[in-house]
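Internal tracking record. Fields below are filled automatically when a chain is submitted to the structure queue. Please do not edit lines marked as system-generated. If the sequence contains nonstandard residues, flag them in the REMARKS field before resubmitting.
Queue: standard
Priority: normal
Entity type: single polypeptide chain
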Amino acid sequence: MNFLESLKNEILIGDGAIGTMLYAKGVSLDANVEHLNLVRPELVLELHREYLAAGARVIETNTFGANWTKLAAIGLEKREREINLRGARLAREAAEGANAFVSGSVGPLVRVKGDERELSPAETAEIYRRQVLALADGGVDLLILETFTDLGQILCALAAARETGLPVVANMAFLENGRLAGGADVERAALALTNAGASVVGANCGAGPLEVLGTIRRMAGATALPIAAYPNSGFPEYVNGRHVYRTTPDYFAERAAEMVANGAVLVGGCCGTTPDHIRSLAERLAGMVPVARSVVAAATPVEERREAVAGAEGFLAKWGKEPVVTVELDPPKGFDCAKIIEGSQTLKTAGADAINIAENPLARIRMGNIALGHLIQQEAGIETIVHITCRDRNLLGLQSDLMGASLLGIRNILAITGDPARIGEQAGATSVYDLNSFTLIKLLADLNAGVNALGNPLGRGAGFTIGCAFNPNSQRMEVQAERLNKKVANGARFVQTQPLYDLARLDEMLERTAHLGVPVLPGILPLVSERNCEFLHNEVPGIVIPDGIRARMRGKEKEAGVREGLAIAREFIDSVRDRVGGFYLIPPFGRFEIAVELVRHIKGR
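SYSTEM-GENERATED OUTPUT FOLLOWS
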C-alpha cells in the first residue's frame, strides 16, 4: 500500500485533534502533551484507536511539539529523540492490522521570549532533522508538517523532512484572506512548497471549515500537487471554564465535501475536532473520488507589500545638507509633563531636529509615549520619534495603537523588541513578544502600504518613517550587520545606534553599513561621573567604554564629571562629523541641558 498512489484514486480520511482530545480525557492543562508518549502511552494509544474506529485512514503521531525549542522550554530537550520515537511506535502499534497510514506530526518551532536572535536556516533545519529522523526510525509512512505560519521555517523543515525519503505533506495555517504573517499569500506559499519538493500541500487550523475551504480553492489553482485540508472546528466559545467548539460533525462533514469537490484529497481535522467529526467525515465522503483539476493561476510569486524607499521627509529632510540631531528624553513617571515639554522646546531652539521618546525603558513604568509624542509635537512644535516595543502589547494591540499613532500625527517609529518585563519594577508583569524587532518592522511596512497584518485594506497608508536600533559594541559586529541588513530589507529607513565611545568601532560600523544607503545616527551618551561611567561599562548591556576614557573619568564627580563627559563627547563628535550625517544624543538622567550644549556644538551655534 503506497500513500501517494492511494491519493490518486481515493479520498483519504485523516484523524482529528490530538491535544484537545487528550486534555478532554482528563490530562491536566499544565501537562505537556508529547510527554504523554512516555508517561501515559496507553492514553495516546487509546486515542489513535478511537480515530481508526471512526474511519481515519491516516493517523498522526503525538509529536506536534516534540522539537528541541519547545521541549527545552520545559526541560525535556534530552528526551527529544525518545519522545518522537515512542510517538511513532505508538501510532504504528495502533495501526497494526488496519488499512491505515501513520504520519509523523511536525509543528513549528518557538523562539525564546525576549531573545531577538533568530535561528539561522541551517540551525532550524538541524532541529527538524533530529525530529524527522527519529520519526522515520519509529516507522512512520509519511511526514506531515502542520500549522506553520512562517514560510521560511516550513521550507527549512521540508528540506530536512525530504532527507528521510518519505512523502511529505506541507500544511500551513493561513490568516484571514489567505495570507501568512510574513506577507506571502496562498498562491505564493503553494508555489514555494511545490518548488521545494513537497509531496502534498495544504492548509490546516485557521478560522474554521469555511475559511479553509476558500484557501483550498485558491491553492488548487496554484499547484498540481495533491491538496490536504485539516480545518479546525471553528472558533471556540468559553463556557464554564472551558473552550468549547460549536461546529457540529454534520456541518464539518458538509464543508469537507465541498473541499473535496474543490480539489482536496486528504481531509482531516484540527483543533476541536473529535472522533465524532471524523466519523461523520468518513460517512459523508464515502464513495467520493479525486476531482480533475487544472492549474489556472500563473503561479508567479506575489510580491509582499512593502513601502517604497522613503524620500527625504520630516526630520531627515536635512540629511546630507547639515547634521541631523535627534535627542532622547524619557517620559515622566507620573502625569507632570512640564519638564519634558520644556526640554523639547529648549532643544528645538538649540537646533535639534527630533525628540526620541522611549517606551517604558528598562521595563519601568512611565507615561505612554504615543500620547506624549502627540503632545510634544503640539506644544513644542518639534517632531517626535516614538519607540515602540514588542514587550507590552500583543499583535492585536500593536496594530490598534499604531493606527492610533498615525491618526494623532506620529510619523516616526523606532521599532525595538524591548527589555523583558522581569528586569523591571512591576511584580507580576509579563512580556508578550508576539513580534520581535524584525517582524514589527514588517508590520509597520504593511501599515504604510495600507494593509494590516491580515492583508485587509485600511483605507490609506500609515505614513511612518521606520527606524531601527543597531548595537556596534557587539564582539561580533558582522552578526549585528547581518541583522541590520534584514531590518532594512523589512522596511527600516533610518538607524540609531547604542552609545559609542570607540572610534575604531564607529569606523567598522560605517564600513559594514555603507551599502545599505540609509541614515545611521551614532548614539552619544555623555558621561557625568566616574560612578556613572563604571556603571554603564559594567552593568548596561550594549555599552562598552574604552579604558582610556574610563581613566579620564576616574575621580571625576559632579560638575567636574559633567565637564569631562562633555569634553569627551565633543571630541568624539568632532572626530567623526565628516563621516556621519547626524547624531542621536542620549542625555543622562533626563538632563536635557547637557544635550543642549552638544546640539549647539554640532550645529555650530
